[in-house]
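Worked example 4.2. Below are the chains of a multi-component assembly; read each line carefully before continuing.
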Amino acid sequence: MKKVTMADVAKKANVSKSTVSQFLNKRYQYMGEETKRNIEEAIKELGYQPNFIARSLKQKRTSTIGIIVANIMHRLSTEVSRAIEDFCRSNEINTIVCNADDDPIKEKKYIEMLRAKQVDGLIIFPTGKNQELYKNMVDQQYPLVFMDRIVSDVKVDTVVVKNEEWASRGIQHLIDNGHERIAMIAPPLTISPRIERAEGYKKTLRKNGIDLNPHYFISTEIGTVKKELARLLAGDKPPTAIFAANDLAFLQVAEYVKEKAIQVPEELSIIVFDNIPFAHISTPTITTIAQPSFEMGKKAAELLLLQIEGEGTKPRIYAFDGDLIIRESSESKKA
Amino acid sequence: MKKVTMADVAKKANVSKSTVSQFLNKRYQYMGEETKRNIEEAIKELGYQPNFIARSLKQKRTSTIGIIVANIMHRLSTEVSRAIEDFCRSNEINTIVCNADDDPIKEKKYIEMLRAKQVDGLIIFPTGKNQELYKNMVDQQYPLVFMDRIVSDVKVDTVVVKNEEWASRGIQHLIDNGHERIAMIAPPLTISPRIERAEGYKKTLRKNGIDLNPHYFISTEIGTVKKELARLLAGDKPPTAIFAANDLAFLQVAEYVKEKAIQVPEELSIIVFDNIPFAHISTPTITTIAQPSFEMGKKAAELLLLQIEGEGTKPRIYAFDGDLIIRESSESKKA
DNA sequence: TAATTTTAATAAATCGATTTAGTAAACCGA
DNA sequence: TCGGTTTACTAAATCGATTTATTAAAATTA
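Applying the procedure described above to all four chains together yields the following structure tokens:
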């Protein structure tokens, strides 16, 4: 079944392609009532569906944006993507989501692919390792927003959470509950949020006059978290509380705790910096530092659409407040 | 910064557009070494990036497929989408994921949008309510695969799990553990998997000589599950085990159980038909009937790509085996 | 009535690639 | 030396829309 094109509609309605195009774009300025009816009828009879590709080629815009998440397994990625999609949808913009899997090479490939597809702009959770490419886009004034991670040296609108401040609040909460031996578990400190959370952890301990014990600070690949954890907890003076720097680190901690049947919070308190979907129904419920993923996603989308409309302003960083949600996993030792 | 086109490259390399096109498509058959080098250099110097849109228009294929999931909140949707994406990626096909939110109108809009964007084919988790539209696509021989749900009357390749059989196995497991008062909690029975799971539930009880108690069969909107559950458990002869028909239903059950501090499995056993990401680390761990989402996604993608290549065969239903993973939430009463 | 403006519709150029048909030079055997 | 083949490359048509410049008729004004 061959495709019905605008030319077919035009022929059937006895008008020119131009007129059909005007009709489809609702430019009725000087269009006869009868012509309108004829075209409408022809479209219906032939079952005509416009070809977006052809339109995009001429108009030089695809009404599509791309999202490149660093790692789709992070809950934040999916929540933010959802928010972006919702916002774009209500502005008649489509979104394409790609997963770079924390791999700068994949990230580069996706950026090139999406640009080849002429998407009107990109929202990226940057790996941070493609500075050249980022700068290139900035130079070309290509609409671009960074999410979750700050890349210094690249002047782009960036949406993040106040990592240091809210990590600090989480640690303070543990200290207020009587903990002094607090460990932090994090993936390698390769990107800004992890570095900032580590800062918050260290500064807050110091501020409370607690010495930093380097053994309590574990920064390692996800796959080796459990091994490190075993060593830590088997050691002398094991920590009484753990701060998991993100959801994937927490998952490892949770698996370990489950396997070893460690009592939480009696033997070990736990807090997590990230959104955990089942935090409120697990046993025990989990204390989290939540990120306002919906607002962040919406903000990023707004910023990008502004840039696309040519109304972007001087690039800056938009830092959102987190939320410390205290649950059972960090209940007071004295309670 | 205006876009660099093939014409610019051609001019710079002192050849025709055609030659540049040949070069880009690696049709080196009769191309001089020097010409090749010239073109390569021109491309690098100008920073030329091909325009996929223009290519798609001429070639009448976008190398892109669409996925329309019924509800992105179902774990199955995301897992299957991931599998599809992975398979497509390795075949140089891009994917666009859309979420119909269980709404036939949105589903219709997405089908039309994606087809306007000239995607080469669609994988749909059908709401089942757009029969006209589905049939239309079939008639036009548009590449199409259904996932998770069977729509009778529409002859399309369909990938599902053996719902009745594996629901049955789950129920049998509960019966073998000494349960007789088994409730089933499900969303409205509007689509085939839910109907088939209910069949499995009923038939297995009957086969074991257990009378069906209509009060034990709750099929209602997600929002009212907890209320119904409260009534059920407060009633005379409350069930000793619950079969949650999918992940969202289970989430409601889990929340309720948490709120009321019901002991699982001592007071109430639970099994779920669906993939639950934290089933193995929750307390208690959760018995699930898992679906092979990865294989299912891969199969669907394979079927679709075959259709796109024009090598599709007579449409049929591909039913996959599930997997009963027994965990703490359904531990034997007698153990 | 002639000049001007408004209304209605169109022809043709364009977007940036791919593809087909064709050309010209070099080569080659008889 | 001639016809035929191979090699290297190109001009022009095409994909399906949008858009600009243009035309022609009808309505209005002077």
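Take a moment to check your reading of the output against the notes. Residues 305 and 311 of chain A are 9 Å apart (CA to CA). Residues 15-19, 22, 29-32, 35, 54, 56-60 of chain A lie near DNA strand C (CB under 10 Å from a C1').
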